[in-house]
Automatic annotation (TrEMBL):
It comes from Croceimicrobium hydrocarbonivorans. Residues 106-350 form the Endonuclease/exonuclease/phosphatase domain. This is Endonuclease/exonuclease/phosphatase family protein. PANTHER family: TRAF AND TNF RECEPTOR-ASSOCIATED PROTEIN, TYROSYL-DNA PHOSPHODIESTERASE 2. Pfam families: Exo_endo_phos.
Length: 360
């Protein structure tokens, strides 16, 4: 009887393992299949870290049981082995650069500088200024910047900003300690019939005698309310009907965002490839590494986290899922990245991300 129970339990676990392995394999397709064609794989891409962990646990279980069933999770993991360094780095870069020789670039979605009191503190803008003063980045890329009556003043002499419209107060800003030689922006496209939102700002600066272009991106947001993040996947005290309506609305928002970001990154990929000089691309991509958005840009650019990061990194601090959606990419034929850091200071719903570079 005990042997039958054990065989039944193993069989049940293997069914679950088969589902998890199949879902993991499908999640890899989120990198390659544009949400403009089919969005289902993009949802699995969001779940990639959890599907990976599930298959690792199954592999450990079958190894302990000395079962050949271990082949299934091992194969599922091995097929997407290149994806693993994008979500977990075992050791950061050990390169040492002389003081003053590195270019420090920070990207930070400042969430309207706490305009709506999402955080209970009153001094968020001043604390952001203090962070910049303490860390002394050379270039700061801000998204969801809000034009205050008492403007943010991080003591950086050069600034370029673009707001949503002529009278708008929310937009993107680039602060620089290096002189800005040229500047501009690209309006980001949208599907036919949809209102185009978002801009890709850029500035050219001179650093150590060479011209460098830096882009500030804020790709299409999901647009969920705060309680959607906090209660994602939890039924709480809602009725089944209310829960289903909320999940349907969240799914619709995600589906729309996947599609619109696909339009944006396909356009941006062509822009970045057309520019022949060295570039750094930072900002809020609103998508994790296991996504079409990230993969499309990562095909021709290097990820600073992969170059110099360490551990499992989270840049968006809302909700139960540890998303890394704020990125700093660069063209590695011109630059090397030797430092990557996420500042765990809750000054927004995002954490500031910083990377340091030197010329090759």
């Amino acid at each position: 009887m005990a042997a039958k129970r054990k065989n039944f339990f193993d069989g049940f676990l293997y069914v679950l393992n088969t589902i998890a392995a199949f879902a993991l394999l499908c999640s890899y397709l989120s990198n390659y299949i544009s949400p403009r064609v089919f969005t289902w794989f993009s949802f699995l891409g969001l779940a990639y870290p959890y599907l990976l962990v599930a298959n690792i646990l199954f592999a450990i279980w079958w190894a302990l049981r000395l079962k050949t069933k271990i082949i299934l999770p091992i194969v599922a993991i091995a097929v997407g082995y290149k994806q693993i360094p994008l979500v977990y780095q075992f050791g950061g870069s050990k390169q040492v650069v002389a003081s003053g020789e590195a270019l420090k670039v920070m990207t930070f979605n400042v969430h309207n500088l706490n305009r709506f009191q999402w955080l209970p503190e009153e001094d968020i803008p001043r604390r952001i200024e203090q962070l910049i003063e303490d860390e002394q980045p050379d270039i700061v890329l801000m998204q969801e910047y809000y034009r205050l009556e008492n403007p943010l003043n991080p003591d950086m002499p050069y600034v370029y900003f673009e707001f949503q419209d002529k009278v708008g107060k929310t937009g993107q800003v680039i602060y620089s300690r290096l002189p800005i030689l040229d500047k501009g922006f690209y309006p980001l496209p949208a599907p036919e019939g949809a209102i185009a939102k978002g801009k890709a700002l850029w500035v050219d600066v001179e650093w150590q005698g060479r011209r460098l272009r830096v882009y500030n991106l804020h790709l299409y947001s999901v647009g969920l309310a705060g309680d959607d993040y906090e209660n994602l996947g939890q039924q709480s005290e809602e009725s089944n009907e209310e829960f289903q309506k909320r999940m349907y609305r969240i799914g619709g928002s995600l589906n729309r965002a996947f599609e619109r970001r696909a339009y944006q990154v396909e356009f941006l990929d062509s822009v970045f490839q057309a520019h022949e000089g060295p570039i750094i691309v930072g900002g809020d991509f609103n998508d994790p590494p296991s996504s079409y958005t990230f993969h499309k840009l990562h095909e021709h650019l290097q990820d600073s986290y992969v170059s110099a990061g360490e551990g499992w990194v989270r840049t968006f601090n809302r909700g139960p899922l540890p998303f890394r959606i704020d990125h700093i990419l660069y063209r590695d034929k011109d630059l090397r990245c030797h430092s990557y850091k996420v500042y765990q200071q809750k000054l927004s719903d995002h954490y500031p991300v910083e990377a340091e570079f030197s010329w090759r």
